[in-house]
Specification:
By secondary structure, the chain is α/β, with parallel strands linked by helices. It is built from 6 helices and 8 strands, in the order βαααβββββαββαα.
Amino acid sequence: MDDIIKISNINDFIFCPASIYFHNLYGNENKLMFQSKYQLNGTKAHETVDENKYSTKAEIITALDVYSEQYRIIGKIDIFDKKKKLLVERKKHIKEIYDGYIFQLYAQYYCMKEMGYEIYKLELRSVDDNKKYNVKLPEEDLEMNTKFENTINEIRKFDLEGYQQTNTLKCGNCIYEDACDRSLNRGE
């Protein structure tokens, strides 16, 4: 894989590393051609942040481009409240907090710290039900931070040629399942 890692690819990698290949392959195509209703709704829910229409308050920063030299990761944040020093990652609907959600927040956190921002709190927000989930800072959860760093290293070392998915549920929920030669659901 490329040396620079997109923050959005971290969660995708945990779901299925092959999905990043297909995402890049279909990247410039009309999303209606390949995205599921769930993903299209998630994109729609993100519009206010991506288009800087979430808030007019001066202390709220949205869609800031961020980069970390240490981890060689790049992306955008969702929301940063300068007054509260709170970094927020929004998801359409959170049923369960996955490691990938936390790792995306950690990646944004490290980027912003390197850029000189002070961050005291991390939060995941579920847009549909307006629920908020506090996430420990990486230095407060060393086990999770180690898992984050291991995942970043795994992404860098990943070889698609030798990869085989082992989780049929992931294949069943993958929008690229029909195009993927590694799907475990072939013949069902």
